[in-house]
């Protein structure tokens, strides 16, 4: 039963970003919010944790509402399961990205579903905060202001004349909870203007963090962008619930206009009857929008180098070196970013690290797989790592989680050889079901119906050798699948 006389809050995590500026570590299939870039947890896990620890005597925190892309649903689920203590969450899936305004609208509709009108604490999944105590204090004050029906935005105290951020113009005397009036939003000014904003002290960075009642958001959206409101509501009202996931109607969702929270509502509020206030946040915030930003928040050695993994440097200063799979060494370099993964190496000077996105665009134009996926690919049942590929063959290392199972499937263009190197495998091949242990193997003929399962409490690892005329991942016909993926 919900506590009486308390302000009820639903945290909202917006997790739809792709993080292309952090390629090659961040990819479409594994974007930056799921990476561990600072601390021991991913940015997504840090965001969930932050918004669930700000309890006070007059506040109660309900389920966390997570809005994510359909393709990332199992990443969200796996990372939630890995969190301790566990977090109660409801996961809303977008069939395709429609920006933040529709995402927040779905969360608001879900929050209102049981007749409640909670305050929504809306944060992106891909940011970092170094001072949790300061963040918690700012959120508690913002919630008190939002409880009066006001829209509250968290403004970041600027430390430099950044041109990649939006700015909030504030004025007037601060209220009881440190809130000030918002008079204007400015999108990404030029260098000269950004310097004037910094010098004036009247502007803050817009970090995309908002606090407001669910009903207030829907009323404001209906006032300024009724087309987004009605289209999102139609898609949401025709949702289906599949295991842990809430899925809006796909065909209706695709009709929703693409728009951000700022453009759809916030920039219109200052000249309307909707009250909008700002609470300042000075908590070591970063959106980690570039490799240079990762260097700025990273732990630096005596030469101002930030390193991760197996790295050896000599006569080198002010570098970020991220090694994922191999030894990376550098001699006599300064101000560089070097990122190594199993299938790509990226080198840039820190000042140009914002332009990594242009490499991703080139990969897109050439239809290169490195834009989408790492060599090691997460799946709901575990992962696979493509070790080697040649003409008419591919070698994979596959790990299946305890109790997990791949889909029952067939391949039209390839056969497979499986060798168990760790654990116990239960294998369906045609009408047979067999148990294999370490150093035992089997053959899956082309076109044969088959399934790989792990019946034990320990991870299962196999080596798979594929052979055939075509070895693409789309040569899979699923007959049965416990994870709700498309069959046929």
Written account of the structure:
This protein has 488 residues and is an alpha/beta fold. α3 crosses α7. It is globular, with a radius of gyration of 25 Å. The longest helix is centred in the first third of the chain and has 15 residues, at 132-146. The strands form 7 sheets. It has a 6-stranded antiparallel beta sheet with strand order 21-22-23-30-25-28, with no helix packed on it. Strands 7-10-8-9-13 form a 5-stranded mixed β-barrel, surrounded by 4 helices. The chain starts with 6 loop residues before the first strand and ends in an 8-residue tail after the last strand. The chain has 3 domains: 7-286, Spore Coat Polysaccharide Biosynthesis Protein SpsA, Chain A, CATH 3.90.550.10; 291-362, no CATH class; 376-480, Jelly Rolls.
In short:
The chain is an alpha/beta fold and 488 residues long. It is built from eleven helices and 31 strands.
Q: What number of structural domains do the residues give?
A: 3
Spatial shape: globular
Low-confidence stretches: none
- In whole angstroms, how far apart are the ends? 45 Å
Q: Please name the fourth-level CATH homologous superfamily of the largest domain.
A: Spore Coat Polysaccharide Biosynthesis Protein SpsA, Chain A
CATH class of the largest domain: Alpha Beta
Trace the largest sheet across and list its strands.
21-22-23-30-25-28
Strand-residue proportion: 25-35%
Radius of gyration based on Cα positions: 25 Å
Largest sheet: 6 strands, antiparallel
Known CATH architecture of the largest domain: Alpha-Beta Complex
SSE-based structural type: alpha/beta
Mean pLDDT: 92
Tally of DSSP β-strands = 31
Number of helices: 11
The CATH topology of the largest domain comes to Spore Coat Polysaccharide Biosynthesis Protein SpsA, Chain A
Helix content: 10-25%
């Amino acid at each position: 039963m919900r506590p009486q006389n308390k302000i009820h809050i639903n945290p909202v995590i917006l997790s739809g970003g792709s993080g292309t500026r952090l390629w090659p570590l961040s990819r479409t299939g594994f974007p930056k919010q799921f990476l561990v870039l600072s601390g021991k947890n991913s940015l997504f896990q840090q965001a969930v944790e932050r918004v669930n620890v700000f309890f006070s005597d007059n506040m109660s925190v309900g389920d966390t509402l997570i809005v994510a892309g359909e393709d990332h649903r199992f990443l969200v689920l796996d990372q939630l399961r890995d969190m301790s203590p566990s977090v109660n969450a409801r996961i809303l899936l977008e069939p395709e990205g429609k920006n933040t305004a529709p995402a927040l609208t779905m969360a608001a509709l879900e929050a209102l579903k049981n007749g409640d009108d909670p305050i929504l604490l809306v944060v992106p999944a891909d940011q970092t905060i170094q001072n949790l105590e300061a963040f918690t204090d700012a959120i508690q004050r913002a919630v008190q202001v939002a409880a009066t029906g006001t829209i509250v935005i968290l403004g970041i105290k600027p430390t430099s004349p950044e041109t990649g951020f939006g700015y909030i113009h504030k004025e007037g005397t601060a209220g009881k909870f440190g809130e000030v009036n918002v008079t204007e939003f400015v999108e990404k000014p030029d260098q000269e203007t950004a310097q004037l904003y910094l010098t004036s002290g009247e502007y803050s960075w817009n970090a995309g963090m908002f606090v407001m009642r669910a009903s207030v958001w829907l009323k404001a959206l209906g006032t300024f962008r009724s087309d987004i409101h009605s289209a999102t509501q139609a898609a949401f009202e025709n949702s289906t619930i599949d295991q842990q996931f809430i899925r809006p109607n796909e065909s209706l969702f695709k009709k929703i206009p693409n728009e951000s929270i700022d453009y759809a509502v916030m920039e219109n509020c200052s000249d309307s009857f909707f009250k909008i206030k700002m609470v300042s946040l000075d908590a070591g915030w970063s959106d980690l929008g570039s490799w240079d930003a990762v260097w700025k928040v990273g732990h630096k050695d005596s030469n101002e180098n930030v390193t991760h993994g197996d790295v050896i440097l000599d006569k080198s200063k002010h570098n970020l070196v991220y090694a994922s799979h191999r030894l990376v060494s550098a001699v006599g370099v300064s101000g560089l970013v070097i990122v190594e993964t199993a299938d790509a190496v990226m080198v840039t000077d820190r000042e140009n690290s914002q332009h990594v996105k242009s490499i991703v665009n080139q990969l897109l134009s050439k239809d290169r797989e490195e834009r989408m996926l790492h060599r090691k690919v997460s799946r709901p049942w575990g992962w696979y790592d493509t070790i080697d590929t040649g003409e008419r063959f591919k070698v994979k290392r596959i790990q299946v989680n305890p109790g997990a199972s791949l889909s029952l499937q067939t391949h039209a263009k390839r056969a497979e050889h499986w060798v168990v190197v760790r654990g116990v495998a239960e294998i369906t091949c045609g009408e047979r079901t067999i148990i294999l242990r370490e150093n035992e193997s089997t053959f899956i003929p082309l076109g044969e119906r088959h399934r790989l399962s792990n019946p034990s409490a320990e991870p299962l690892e196999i080596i798979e050798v594929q052979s055939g005329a075509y070895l693409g991942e789309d040569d899979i016909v699923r007959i049965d699948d416990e994870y709700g993926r498309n069959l046929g």
